[in-house]
Design goal:
The chain has 271 residues and is α/β, with parallel strands linked by helices. The chain contains 9 helices and 12 strands. It folds into 2 domains: 174 residues, Molybdenum Cofactor Biosythetic Enzyme, Chain A (3-Layer(aba) Sandwich), CATH 3.40.980.10; 90 residues, Alpha-Beta Plaits (2-Layer Sandwich).
């Protein structure tokens, strides 16, 4: 399995000013590919915290670290400097980065001038490669660190992050994952409590520990317990994904019925 970690930077995420929708989006995107985020680390806008956080994550030797936030022109945008510090690399003015910035400025009809703020966005760690940002000004950055970990640094503005992730990060991760086949369902259940179904979920996971099975209680409706049940199977083999999925759904459906529950709807997807 390919290991991917999200490293979020920004005080606004820690004080409740901004919800970390970027980590949520990346996690969902990876899951649709057949992968998953191993963890999410969030730190404040501090060179020491960014540097220490990077070292902590590199020690885990993941395949990818996706750093999000802190690439802009303001003083608190210090991610790339913190990454360079953590890698003990110099941070240098990059001609390719400033060319991308200039291209974007002129594309939106503004005259380019090399201001200190724009120069700051073109300062990237030694050995890094700038990545085109079709939506905003600050380029993304790709570099290799530690024992082969690929580090992507993406802007915190969601539309910019998604643009660079889709054009660069996702393609590389997909290449590592290879073709994955996914079979999944979300079942809406009624007249059954989560605690009653829990032993059956445990049995299903013993049968296929590689599967993802998760219950989500939705409270009482007119005094009747309701919940949703997710079942997802991922495999490199289409036949394996489908057969394992069918076995688990059949087993759980029988148990739900035996416990007096009702499956009110199913939302299935095969890939």
């Amino acid at each position: 399995m390919v290991s991917v970690i999200n490293f979020s930077v920004g005080k606004e995420l820690l004080i409740g000013r901004t919800m970390n929708t970027n980590a949520h989006w990346i996690g969902g995107r990876l899951y649709k590919m057949g992968g998953m985020l191993d963890r999410v680390l969030t730190v404040t806008d501090s060179l020491e915290e960014i540097s220490a956080g990077l070292k902590e994550l590199l020690a885990l030797r993941p395949d990818f670290i996706i750093v999000v936030g802190g690439l802009g022109p303001t003083p608190d945008d210090m991610t790339l400097k913190g990454i360079a510090l953590g890698l003990e690399r110099k941070i240098k003015f990059n001609e390719d980065a400033i060319a991308l910035i200039k291209e974007h400025i002129e594309k939106v009809g503004r005259e380019f001038e090399l201001t200190p703020a724009r120069r700051k966005m073109a300062m990237i760690p030694e050995g890094a490669v700038p990545l085109r940002n079709d939506v905003g000004t600050a380029p993304g950055v790709r570099l290799t660190a530690g024992k082969g970990t690929v580090v992507y640094c993406l802007p915190g503005v969601p539309s910019e992050m998604r643009n660079i992730f889709s054009n660069f990060t996702e393609k590389e991760i997909r290449g590592r994952l290879g073709e994955m086949h996914i079979a999944k369902v979300t079942m809406k259940l009624s007249r059954i409590y989560e605690s009653a179904l829990a032993p059956s979920i445990g049995e299903a996971l013993k049968m296929h520990p590689e599967a993802y099975i998760k219950s989500h209680p939705r409270g009482l409706k007119s005094g009747v317990p309701t919940m949703e049940l997710d079942v997802t199977v991922t495999s490199r083999e289409s036949g394996t994904a489908r057969s394992t999925y069918s076995e688990l759904v059949s087993f759980l459906s029988r148990r739900i019925s035996k416990l007096g529950g009702t499956i009110t709807s199913k939302r299935e997807a095969m890939k």
